[in-house]
């Protein structure tokens, strides 16, 4: 919407600068003035050949028309007003759209845009609730399933930046990450006093990305945090207007960081070679690029369907069986609540993601076949500890694809009938008879899932703490 709107404004700007009417320019390029009007109003997308004729007629380059910048400050206000009025927030009010006419003053436009911004700010204060977060996360998971968890546009952005710093093979170095930041006009600064609610802070005015002095718990490395901060600029993100948009941006920056740490060409070559050897292993993929096991497993889900021709599933599960993160496009039936959300739901006790916790030796990956109502799946699971809690990371595939993986010879096999409660949820009649009505327990809450996020410009980040930090480091 905004691209066509900006293009239309630029066509109008250069047409009027050339002192041509709609009909005059239309006749010169071979279309009706009414059709040209639709293009100037962002209602129709012109072909490149037509844009070339328009550019030649008004005496400019095609690139001048295709720039993503508004041609004037006035146009920028008009474009922003149109963008805001087409947003879901304003549409939900049922109010008519106001078109910026020639008689409308700049002050009036600024006031309208300002009112929209304030409306969005007040709306954001009430959106970061657990229910909203779970609903938005479910919609995003379903969207990524339709895309096979693969975002080619972001892959290209990462590949282009990697080439510019000359990285060819092996783990991405801290020096290469610093060079990437310099290309974008930023300096990486390590400080011990980041706001408690922020993993990194970008000072756009002074060109600095503030990072902690060492990796934080949970395997989130400095390289990844720096790349995520850069991704906001590379991907053209603006302040999120909804919690769903915040989650979308977070997914995109995480995707970019992983695509930079595990570049597309090198990753596909590595996995293709492993597949030909029938020896795909998450631990090998992890070690080849110097990332966490979770990052390697998630990166595998990005590439498995689009480049290796296999469907896949991923799970991060707590030691109590609760889902922290999940993805599937292979038919595995994830546990969900009535809203369709899987976060916080318990996976079957017989799945590899939970069986792996029962091992005495957890230093190696655990392999298992699981027969389910949807078919048989093979899984590779690695356990770990982060933030004082144990978790498991699983990647798995339908039985037909197990032949490409290390660990396919395992004798471990379980049967799961979930969501049938008799599978692993319902206690035996003996236990029920012995303890029913004779026990009471307090549930363990999953704070990462249920706690509302503090309101602010960026959900979860304290504005006062953020701005005080920036002010203290500005000089």
SS content category: alpha+beta
Look at the structure and give the CATH class of the largest domain.
Answer: Mainly Alpha
Q: Architecture of the largest domain in CATH?
A: Orthogonal Bundle
Tally of individual domains: 3
Low-confidence stretches: 216-220, 447-454
CATH topology of the largest domain: Arc Repressor Mutant, subunit A
Neighbour order of strands in the largest sheet: 5-4-8-7-6-9
- Whole-number radius of gyration? 27 Å
- Strand content bin: 5-15%
Element-level helix/strand string:
HHHHHHHHHHHEEEHHHHHEEHEEEEHHH
Q: If you average the pLDDT, what whole number results?
A: 87
Taking the alpha carbons of the first and last residues, their distance comes to 40 Å
Total count of helical runs of at least 4 residues: 20
Largest sheet: 6 strands, mixed
Helix content: 40-55%
Extended strand count: 9
Outline, from the CA principal axes?
A: elongated
Quick description:
The chain is an alpha+beta fold and 475 residues long.
Summarize the structure in words:
The protein is of the alpha+beta class. The protein has 3 domains: 2-94 and 114-124, lambda repressor-like DNA-binding domains (434 Repressor (Amino-terminal Domain)); 145-261 and 454-475, Arc Repressor Mutant, subunit A (Orthogonal Bundle); 280-415, PAS domain (Beta-Lactamase, 2-Layer Sandwich). It contains 20 helices and 9 strands. The chain has helices at residues 2-17, 22-29, 33-40, 48-58, 62-66, 73-85, 88-91, 106-124, 130-146, 152-164, 174-183, 222-234, 243-261, 264-276, 282-289, 293-308, 352-355, 429-435, 447-450, 463-473, and strands spanning 187-190, 201-203, 208-211, 313-318, 323-328, 366-372, 375-386, 389-398, 413-415. It has a 6-stranded mixed beta sheet with strand order 5-4-8-7-6-9. A hairpin with a 4-residue loop joins β2 (201-203) and β3 (208-211). α6 crosses α8 (106-124). It is elongated, with a radius of gyration of 27 Å. It starts with a helix and ends with a helix.
